[in-house]
Amino acid sequence: MTQEKLLHGGQQIGRVLKAEGVEYQFGVGGGHIFPIMAGLGQAGIKMVHCRHEQGGAYAADAYARASGKIGVCFGTAGPGMTNTISAVAQAYWCKSPVLALYGQHMTFEDGRDALQEGYAEKVVTPFTKWTKRIVDPTLLSYYTKKACTDALAYPPAPVALEVPVNIQSKRTPASAQKGYVDKAFQEPAPDLADTASVEKAVKSLLEAERPIIAGGEGVFWAQAGDELREFVEFMQIPVITRRLGRGAVREDHPLAFSGRARGKILRQADVAVTIGLKLGYLEGYGAWAAKARLIQINQSVTEIETTVPSDMVIIANPKAVLKQMLACAKVMVKEVPKREAWLKAVEEIKQKEKQRMADAAEASKNDKPMHPTWVAKCCVDVLDDSATVIFDALTGSAFMTERIVGKFAGCVLDSGPWAGVGHGVAMGVGAQLARPGKQVLVVMGDGGMGLGGFDIETAARCQLPVVYVLHNNSAWMASSVPEYRKILPVVGIQDDPAPFFILSTRYDEVFKPMGCYTERVEDPAEMLPALRRAFESGKTAVIDAVVERNVPLAVGGGWPEEFLAGMMGWIDKDDTPDLYKSFFGDR
Fold first, then answer.
1. Is residue 582 a contact partner of residue 559, using CB atoms and an 8 Å limit?
2. Which of 32, 185, 412, 457 is packed most tightly, with the most Cβ within 10 A?
């Protein structure tokens, strides 16, 4: 009789993840995590070794959001675990199904000042659905499978497993694993809405004069883009897609709107339906719908915003409920709604915004240093329909996001409400692995490059054709008000005595020795040709674009009153008049 093969703990984890379709593991190695790294490798899961643990988790996040599958990152004990926290938190707030695997000191060293003693259950739990320390080697398969299932369950979010190194090294037969049966779990059928609710929602939309529909992450995860497009076309309703759902209905569709046009259109709506979209901070908590009859549709009650009055709430799978609503509408409607006046008004707003952007680009095309709006125009001009754009720049993102035309759900990745910095570099790695051979453009600032830049070497080493456009303004936060100089005296030298400015850096020269294609662009006429050469190079590329530092963003009068009162209340009109005016305008 053949004796059953004994598998170490890393192999038990690896075989489950392989069965789940995991292709890559991202992270930085260390002694306490080696058995897990090896076990995943022995299962055929390829390793992307990063330059910082945060890069591993950022890459796993981007891979998860770009592929729709689980992303796996790893970190060794103690600092290896704590270094991932910002990235895991970003994945949490961006609804990204990441599995974080952590090594740990040996169980008999608990509380004994062990090397790199730390406890992920205490540290990482606030940014995960759950975190589990596994001390029984026969439960590794069970918790690995449960982690994958739970991370992907809507709303998706990270799950973390922490395994002491002596538990990882313990060998057991697969048959000794408790609570795990291969391929036993079957995906449940999508949740349907009750018929009465569907009829009521459709009737509200049919009776509306100025309806809109706003789709979000739930549309992406339910793969409901086709259903959303078919529904709005039948009902002739303007539609906006947001967050990970952006592009689910192509933004060049006649009914789609985006960019700065959205506020003017949303505030005129008399009936607003959100589907798969949480009305959090980035959506103004739904304040734009205060005068509309609001219908919220989401797969989870936790994604319903309760601080804005709702006419109706439906808890159902977006794909399923859109099919129900379309079928219901086709029964109720004898003639497709015309909505000529509303659609004309929406189109006029869109065209005005389009003209404004064209005028802004034309006005800035000869500016030296380059204006971010010109860099944004050139970036958009070189992108094809398959492009993924990742935002990691304050100024650059502000001018780029309004110009992008989303062509598919998940085409835009960012840090969401976590609003981190330095994530973009490693996210480019994860996105390119999820969408091999497709265009990946990362919009960077030099602040983010300082925090995460060395993972560009990771991209180059992995031979990934990611293009990084660096908005190099030698500043942490553009438009730093000169009066900050009086408040924050600095140490040392820099280009300007303002506290957020730094010494000019030739980033093209920094990254060229790493094997990247690089160019420094100072002449605006060279921006578009440089981008074309970068994409055509087939290599990791860095375009070091020198841009104007003192570019005003939408600040004076643009921030919500609550934000200004809570965040900027310390600024005094008499003591710091220039600083006050930059945030409060003439109030």
1. no
2. 32
Name the strand (E) or helix (H) holding 6: strand 6-8
Residue 100's DSSP bridge partners are 73, 160
Who's near 491: CB < 8 A, 6+ residues apart? none
Buried b / exposed e across 333-359, counting CB within 10 Å, b at 16+?
eeeebebeebbebbeebbeebeeebee
CB atoms within 10 A of CB 18: 16
> Measured at the alpha carbon of residue 542, what is the angle toward residues 541 and 546, in degrees to the nearest 5?
150
Report the distance separating Cα 441 and Cα 465, nearest Å.
Answer: 9
Torsional class of 267: left (φ above 0), alpha (ψ -120 to 50), beta (otherwise): alpha
For 79-116, the pLDDT digits (tens) are 999 999 999 999 999 999 999 999 999 999 999 999 99
Q: Mutual orientation of helices 318-332 and 225-235 as an angle, nearest 10°? A: 20
pLDDT value of residue 350: 97
Distance between CA atoms of residues 242 and 79, nearest Å = 35
| Residues 469, 414: Cα–Cα separation, whole Å | 15
pLDDT in tens, 22-62: 999 999 999 999 999 999 999 999 999 999 999 999 999 99
Spatial contact of 121 and 161, defined as CB atoms under 8 Å apart: no
Residue 361 and residue 205: Cα distance in Å, rounded?
38
Contact 416, 94 (CB under 8 A): yes
Least confident of 355-364, 365-374, 557-566: 557-566
pLDDT for position 242: 96
Which pair of structure tokens corresponds to residue 281?
Answer: 């901070």
Task: Tell which wins on pLDDT, 489 or 303.
Answer: 303
Q: Give the strand order in the sheet containing 71-75.
A: 46-49, 24-28, 71-75, 98-104, 159-164, 131-133
d(CA 389, CA 396): 12
| Alpha helices by DSSP H, 68-136 | 79-82, 85-93, 120-123
Angle at 551 between CA 535 and CA 417, to 5 degrees: 70
